[in-house]
UniProtKB/TrEMBL annotation:
Source organism of the structure: Gloeophyllum trabeum (strain ATCC 11539 / FP-39264 / Madison 617) (Brown rot fungus)
Assembly and interaction partners: Interacts with TRM9.
Family per record: Belongs to the TRM112 family.
Name recorded for this polypeptide: Trm112p-domain-containing protein
GO biological process, one term: tRNA methylation
Annotated GO MF terms: protein heterodimerization activity
InterPro entries recorded: Trm112, Trm112-like
Pfam families: Trm112p
CDD domains linked to this entry: Trm112-like
Length: 123
């Protein structure tokens, strides 16, 4: 499933596309909100792995402005709940992710991204 927790780890891997290939840009998406169990310890542990600007930009592409532009130094429950919602409860069901560099389109159908490349695209 495409959630922002996984989107934050995805980059384009088309042959020769190795600059400005992250983050993939959302296009023509349909989202669904699904409640998920809140786990503050998980979020605190995952936070250092997040590319913050990419997460905030992706959330805004999907219409969510609950995260601050700058990652806060003070981590409180309100921040963790907003982070939880953005990372784990917003599901991209349909649409595409597009590489900002080579413009390769990775379609999303039924919540599943197709990250497979054609043989000539593999480097």
């Amino acid at each position: 499933m495409v959630r922002l927790i996984t989107h934050n780890l995805l980059a384009c891997h088309v042959k020769g596309c190795n600059t400005n290939n992250f983050p993939l840009q959302f296009q023509d998406v349909q989202i669904e909100l699904r409640e998920a169990d809140f786990n503050a310890d998980f979020l605190r542990g995952f936070l250092p792995k997040i590319e913050w600007n990419a997460l905030v930009d992706a959330a805004r592409q999907l219409g969510d402005t609950s995260l601050p532009q700058e990652q806060p130094t003070m981590i409180d429950d309100d921040f963790l709940k907003a982070l939880h919602h953005v990372l784990l409860e917003i599901h991209v069901e349909e649409g595409a992710m597009v590489c900002p560099n080579c413009k390769h389109v990775y379609p999303i159908a039924s919540g599943i991204p197709n990250m497979l490349l054609a043989e000539h695209e593999i480097g």
